[in-house]
Amino acid sequence: MSLNIRYIDMDLSRGRFSMSGKMKITWTDQRIGWDPTFYENMEVVYLPFSKDWSPDVFLHNGLSDHFMQTKVGMLTYQGDINYEISVHSISACTPNLNLAPWGLQICSLKFGSWINTQYEVEYRLPKRDQIVLEDFIGTGWKIVNTSGRLQSINNPLAKEPVHLVVFDITFQRQDHYDAGKGIHMKPKINETEYEL
Q1: Which residues are within 8 A (CB) of 4 and not within 5 positions of it... i.e. 6 or more apart?
Q2: pLDDT for 36-79, tens place per residue?
Q3: Strand-strand pairing, 80-92 and 16-28
Q4: Which pLDDT does position 182 carry in this prediction?
Q5: Other CB atoms within 10 Å distance of the CB of residue 45
Q6: How far is CA 165 from the centre of its chain?
């Protein structure tokens, strides 16, 4: 599971972190592979999403989330399945009000499942490119650091723990427009004074 972030926003007064982007999910099912030499050297087949199995994905700390699944997935002859899912989420995040609105913010997105427990589906992170920023649009925020990690939590609906993929995003405001005062502010280099 990996994440490509396109947009972020933080409502400091309400502790709401908004994120839009794409999630890439890949897995291998060797039962559905084939030998390309028997099928005109065909190595890839595109399948409708509804025709095959896919892991359940749920944003555990979400206040609101919308997952728009792609209509097709890519299946390789080795049994590798690749899907991209469009993600638009609002999650709970405790704001850092030190030096507000310029202080560093750290918000986490905790993805996993309530249905597929750790022992049926093991969520993993790729060794590199866990979070990709190539499509990121600044919109007043600068992403300073990103990381991915695994976390196990107890599921009250199952005997086994649930394995979560957690994406941590550290970001900071680049500029701020105060509509009430009609002023546009940017932090100075030491970030303790503000430039109007």
Answers
A1: 21, 22, 23, 24, 131, 132, 133, 134, 135
A2: 999 999 999 987 766 556 667 888 888 987 766 666 788 999 99
A3: antiparallel
A4: 60
A5: 14
A6: 9
pLDDT digits (tens, 9 = 90+) for 10-31: 999 999 999 999 988 888 888 8
Which of 111-115, 135-139, 157-161, 192-196 is modeled with the greatest confidence? 135-139
Is residue 130 within 8 Å of residue 168, measured between CB atoms? no
Q: 67 Cβ partners below 8 Å, 6+ apart? A: 23, 57, 85, 86, 87
Nearest to 184 by CA among 193, 195, 173: 195
Cβ–Cβ < 8 Å for 31, 17? no
What's CA 155's distance to the chain center, in Å? 21
Question: 84 forms bridges with which residues in the sheet?
Answer: 24
